[in-house]
Each structure stands twice: as C-alpha cells, then as structure tokens.
Design a protein that fits this description.
alpha/beta; 2 domains; binds S-adenosylmethionine; 12 helices; 302 residues; Rossmann fold; disordered N terminus; 7-stranded mixed sheet; two-stranded antiparallel sheet; globular
Length: 302
C-alpha cells in the first residue's frame, strides 16, 4: 500500500506538471496536504490553458497563488517512516531538457539520432543520457569485448564502439536488415566498423553460436535491448558469455512505469515484471536498477 500510494502521488504530480500546471516548491508540510492541493490543481489542470509545455509555467488564465509563476520542481516525498523522509526526484519535461543539455553527445551520435528521428520505431532508440552511461560503464570496465542484443539503427552500439580501444570488439545482434543498414553506415562514418561484428538474424542464435565456438566467459560487457519477452533467455545466454566481474545491462526494466501498476497485466508488462523479480532473487549477479530512460538494470556477474 505504501508503495502504491506514493506511486499514485508521483504519477498525479508528474501528470499535472506535464499538463502545464505550475507548482510551488514542495515542502513536507505541503505534501501532508497533498490530497487537497492535488484536488485544487486537478481543477486547474482541466480548466487552464498554459502557454508553455516546458520550463517555467505561465498560465493564460487568471492566476492564483498556486499557479502564478512557479517552476515545475517535482519531487516525490515517499512514506516518511519507510523511507526516512527521502525526497526522490521526478523528471519533468523541463528537468529532462536540463539533463539532456548536460550530456556530452558526440557529433556523430547526434547525426544518427536526427536521422533516426524520422524513421519508424525511432522511440526505441536509447536516450543520449543512457548512451553516455553505457559508454562510461564500458570505459570503467576497460572493456575490450562487448555484445549488444538489439541494434536498431545503431545509437547505443555506436556509443559503445566509439569508446572501445582499437583492439576492441562489439558483437552487434539485429534481425532487421533495414535498420542495420543505417547502423552500418554510421559505424563506417565514425571509423569504428572494424570494431563491430554485425550478426544479422535472431539474437539468441548468435549468442548460442558464440558459446558453441568456445567464447564463454570471454566478454566484459553486454547490453540487452531487443524483444522484452526474451530477456530471461538472453540473460541466461549472456551469463555464460560474460566473465566474472563483467556487466549485463538490461533496458526498459520500468516499461513506462507499467511494471509498478498492478492494473496493467499485458503479456510484455508481466514478462518484464517477472524478469525483474527473477533478477532481484538471482544470487549469480549483483544488481542495480537505475531510473534512467525507461529504466536500466545493471547486473554484474559474481
Ligand atoms: C529497442 S530496439 C534497439 C534500440 C537500440 N539499442 C538503440 O539504442 O538504437 C530493439 C531492436 O531489437 C531488434 N530485435 C527484436 N527481437 C530481436 C531478435 N529476436 N533478434 C535480433 N534482434 C531483435 C528489433 O528489430 C529492434 O531493432
């Protein structure tokens, strides 16, 4: 109950912020009165037409003391006793703009992102802040051998290939030829094609074939971003391929927040929720679920 009430709170607050309702800075006292404030704001949300979706909200309609000129500082105050008054940040559109403005995105990745934006499925691409984190993990590990499951047009794989040493190798698995063509074009343009071993076809087959070729325990890093219902199978295969201390990073573990909504029980959501539970209980790995992009879990093989 505690978790679901704070999630409702989070969602309600974020939704109102997204819809252009301006908020005062939240204090614990304000949050105690959240339900009455929320009701007030809900009325505002349905009746106001606000001039800007991002940044400071200035509403066109008659201002009141709650909505006059407040930035959308959205925080979640979770249950005091359970979480020790911890304020957990909620990413509003303006805050996300700020995060992106603080990402060092290489020019070639920016070009690829822009080209992909007009393509079918562009929302599948990892965000620049996620790609930066993946690249940093690869660098921290001093990884030489990496695997990606689910390349699409190559944004995350290019981010990884760019930071690999010249001797490094990235096995890039993708079943869609059309998007793979874009990825290859950018590997070429970025001068990293020699580091990428493209496996066109079903990812599970490519991973099994690496194991059969005796490449078990030889990879430092793997990123999983393909068919979500296959996550458990990819994970088991990658656990064989990655060395002790190596990382397996799984994308979309929060699935647009649906994993935490008990009312949502479609096949994909249930499968991701079950997989998250399995990871939590899996003693073969250390884990950290990171709320970046659509949520990524970083697993380290013990
Ligand atoms: C979410 S997208 C990957 C996005 C990519 N990581 C990026 O940042 O641009 C998922 C990709 O996985 C591919 N895919 C899905 N199932 C697959 C499978 N069984 N084998 C290989 N690729 C698969 C899809 O064709 C799609 O291009």
């Amino acid at each position: 109950m505690a978790t679901s009430s704070s999630l409702v709170l989070h969602r309600c607050w974020s939704m109102l912020a997204y819809r252009g309702v301006a908020f005062p800075r939240r204090s614990p006292r304000l949050m105690l009165n959240f339900h009455s404030v929320c009701a007030t704001l809900a009325v505002k949300a349905s009746s106001d037409r606000c001039s800007s979706r991002f940044g400071t909200r200035t509403c066109n309609s008659k201002p009141n003391h709650l909505t006059r000129s407040c930035s959308a500082n959205a925080f979640v105050v979770v249950e005091d006793e359970k979480y020790g008054n911890k304020q957990v940040i909620s990413v509003t559109p303006s805050l996300y703009d700020y995060i992106l403005a603080n990402v060092r995105e290489p020019e070639i990745l920016r070009q690829l992102r822009e080209e992909t934006a007009s393509m079918h499925g562009s929302q599948m691409q990892v965000s620049p802040d996620q790609a930066q984190l993946l690249a940093m993990l690869v660098q921290i590990l001093r990884a030489e051998r990496c695997i990606e499951v689910g390349v699409y047009t190559g944004y995350s794989s290019l981010a990884i290939a760019l930071v690999l040493p010249e001797s490094g190798r990235l096995v890039a698995c993708e079943r869609d030829a059309k998007s793979l063509e874009v990825a290859k074009k950018y590997y070429e343009r970025a001068g990293v094609f020699h580091k990428v071993d493209v496996k066109y076809g079903l990812a599970a087959d490519a991973l099994k074939s690496l194991i059969l070729k005796g490449e078990a325990c030889s990879f430092d890093f793997a990123f999983v971003d393909a068919e979500k219902r296959m996550n458990q199978e990819y994970f088991e295969l990658l656990l064989q391929l990655v060395r002790v201390g190596g990382l397996i990073v799984i994308d979309n573990v929060l699935w647009h927040g649906k994993v935490a909504d008990t009312m949502v029980n479609d096949v994909k959501t249930v499968s991701i929720r079950n997989f998250n539970k399995c990871l939590l209980e899996d003693k073969r790995v250390n884990i950290s679920m990171v709320p970046i992009g659509d949520g990524m879990t970083i697993c380290q093989k013990r």
